[in-house]
Amino acid sequence: MEMWPANASIREVGPRDGLQNEQPVPAADKVRLINALSHTGVRRIEAVSFVHPKAIPQMADADEVWAAVDKVSDVVYSALVPNQRGLNRAMEAGFDQIEVVVSASDTHNRRNINRSTAESLDEIAALQAVKPAEVIIATSFGCPYEGDVDPLRVAQIVDRVVADGAPRVAFGDTTGMATPIRVRAVIGAVRERHPDLPVLLHFHNTRGTGLANILTAIELGITEFDASVGGLGGCPYAPGATGNVATEEVVHMLHDMGIDTGIDLDRLIEVAAMAQEIVGRELPSGVLRAGPRSRTVA
Amino acid sequence: MEMWPANASIREVGPRDGLQNEQPVPAADKVRLINALSHTGVRRIEAVSFVHPKAIPQMADADEVWAAVDKVSDVVYSALVPNQRGLNRAMEAGFDQIEVVVSASDTHNRRNINRSTAESLDEIAALQAVKPAEVIIATSFGCPYEGDVDPLRVAQIVDRVVADGAPRVAFGDTTGMATPIRVRAVIGAVRERHPDLPVLLHFHNTRGTGLANILTAIELGITEFDASVGGLGGCPYAPGATGNVATEEVVHMLHDMGIDTGIDLDRLIEVAAMAQEIVGRELPSGVLRAGPRSRTVA
After folding, report:
1. How far B235 CA lies from chain A's nearest CA (Å)?
2. Closest by Cα among A214, A225, A210, A150 to A177
3. Containing H/E element for A186?
4. DSSP conformational letter for B235
5. Which chain B residues are closer than 8 Å to A297 by Cβ?
6. CA–CA separation, B182 and B70 (whole Å)
7. Which of A238, A247, A281, A296 is deepest in the core (most CB within 10 A)?
8. What per-residue string of b and e applies to B110-140 under the rule 16 or more CB within 10 Å gives b?
9. Which residue numbers delimit the Pyruvate carboxyltransferase domain (chains A, B) (predicted)?
10. Which residues lie across from B76 on neighbouring strands?
């Protein structure tokens, strides 16, 4: 299809965003997972976050995990940091790619980190002066407390973080409230003001719309997506609900559509099975359960 | 969006296609489910199938169920029949809307009903002479035994059934092998030869692509879809795999996109909870678990 690109780039967020929303697992399992992902052909892995262990015990061993990972030269590993202290830890650990988060919704930002969105934006500006970082704008497509989020508000946050030095921006569908019309609205509002800004989309499949949203973004020319192997990661606001879109479901659909990701799908499915074994619960990935469409019954 | 229609029509298939692929449930529960669905605003319900009880014990009580249902005047109820005997039973029971099935893939047709596709097409022609019926072409987007199915083969089956009197055709993604490119290929091949034929699409969400496929079809101007309340119905070829797309996930996405279905989403979610209670297992519907995006946390 002429309207589809030849390539898309996946950032694997299972080790960080996924495991951060699961019951804690041993450091050795995290290392094993990251090492296995490094050999699937994926080029970007969000490996750890440097957050306070009281706030997020799942990431208390970030330094230990990262030190033990076999770094693969053609994979870019990134770390999420909440503040200056986290940034220092990430830079000491040798991370070059840094991500920071702010919620478009004030209520979500306050509940999440006890600050207003404006206060977080000031802190992020200070961080950008030290080290340019990707800004992930959470609740870009809706807030579980406030409901709809005005795309103009999201675009204004982009204005601010770009002015403060953010080289790239990601839009997070934190609790799976995006639908194709919301994706078009947010991307449209942002593009009108920042037509050349590199953007990445981060969808959750909480209400089944994950791949429909990715398809919509692909049709808008977006080619960078977060995804989580096996669909690792729950949703704190809806027990049992699906979290991040499963990497192998994204790759499976894109490859069938002729859009290459550089990822070996069979190998990725093996890693999804490992992720399922590590967390000890059935993960929501359909491609993990059923296999790719090319796997025929004997 | 100018490219999206104002309305879409859902046929609820949970009572038949859904329950046929679950462990058997009492007739009274089937009646309760159909009655509740009749008051959601949905206008079409596939209620039962008249098949041999040895082949499909889940539908052995079709006559009993249908006799006990409170028929609502603005709902069109349909029945699936496999052969002349089933058609006779359906007509005696008072059904006016009849569906028959044939698989585009010869191997799937043989494994399913021990006949070649050509033999089934001859039988369907004989049925159409008695009573015009919608033909559901299973495995239109891929076969779990043969793999890819040539869209031209699907189009040629359409040629045949239309010539034999089928007033409308449905394309079944029997084991969830459709992706957006497959949807475009099948619809393109059929439309080239039958631009005005009423068509309906029936997707399974086995590999997560259900709503992406519906979005693609919507963009192609298709407005009729099968869906199953709660996502009732498994997949015989992949234990634990998701079956039909969940009606409330479809309705939730379409309504948010401004495409009306006439269905009351809140009421539908209540029926999905009832369906879950009836089958006694957690159904795969994200909208059932998490609620609609409009349901904010207090």
Report:
1. 9
2. A210
3. helix A180-193
4. -
5. 144-145, 237
6. 39
7. A247
8. bebbebebeebbebbeebbeebebbbbbbbb
9. 8-269
10. B44
d(CA B182, CA B172): 12
Q: Which two tokens stand for residue B203?
A: 């997707």
CB neighbourhood size of B96 (10 A): 11
pLDDT in tens, B123-169: 999 999 999 999 999 999 999 999 999 999 999 999 999 999 999 99
User: Are A228 and A234 spatial neighbours (Cβ–Cβ below 8 Å)?
Assistant: no
Query: In sequence order, what are the beta bridge partners of A55?
Result: none
Q: Bridge-partner residues for A200, per DSSP?
A: A170
Q: Tell me whether residues A242 and B292 touch, CB distance under 8 A.
A: no
- Per-residue pLDDT for B83 more than 70? yes
In chain B, domain spans: 9-290
Please name the residues in contact with A123: beta carbons below 8 A apart, sequence gap of 6 or more.
A83, A84, A115
Q: Which residues of B are catalytic?
A: 235
Is residue A88 exposed (0-12), middle (13-18) or buried (19+ Cβ within 10 Å)? Answer: middle
A216 interfaces chain B, CB cutoff of 8 Å: yes
**Integer Cα distance of B91 and B98 in angstroms:** 9
How many angstroms separate the CA of residue A296 from the nearest CA in chain B? Answer: 5
Hey, are the CB atoms on A293 and B212 less than 8 Å from each other?
Answer: no
Choose the closest CB to B257 out of A143, A179, A210: A179
Sign of CA dihedral A259, A264, A269, A273: negative
**What would the CATH number be for the domain defined by B9-290?**
3.20.20.70
Instruction: With beta carbons under 8 A apart, name residues in chain A contacting B206.
Output: 286, 290
Q: Taking each helix axis from N to C terminus, what angle separates B117-130 and B106-113, rounded to the nearest 10 degrees?
A: 70
The active-site residue out of A235, A245, A268, A271 is A235
Q: Is B290 in contact with A257 (Cβ distance < 8 A)? A: no
N- to C-terminal Cα separation, chain A: 32
Q: What was the ipTM of the complex prediction?
A: 0.96
Buried b (16+ CB within 10 A) or exposed e, B30-41: bbbbbebbbebb
Label residue A239 by pLDDT band (50, 70, 90).
low
Query: Would you call B5 an interface residue with chain A, using a CB distance cutoff of 8 Å?
Result: no
Give the closest of A144, A240, A253 to B209, CB-based. A253
Q: What angle do CA A179, A230, B183 make, to 5 degrees?
A: 50
B58 in reach of chain A (CB within 8 A)? no
Is residue A48 within 8 A of residue A257, CB to CB? The reply is no
Going from the C-alpha of B7 to that of each of B79, B228, B231, the distances in angstroms are: 24, 19, 22
| CATH topology (fold) of A9-287 | TIM Barrel (3.20.20)
Question: B108 vs chain A: nearest CA distance in angstroms?
Answer: 11
For chain A, say whether B209 makes contact (Cβ under 8 Å).
yes
Contacts of B262 by beta carbon, 8 Å cutoff, 6+ apart: B7, B41, B42, B43
Phi and psi based region of residue A161 (left: phi greater than 0; alpha: psi -120 to 50; beta: remaining): alpha
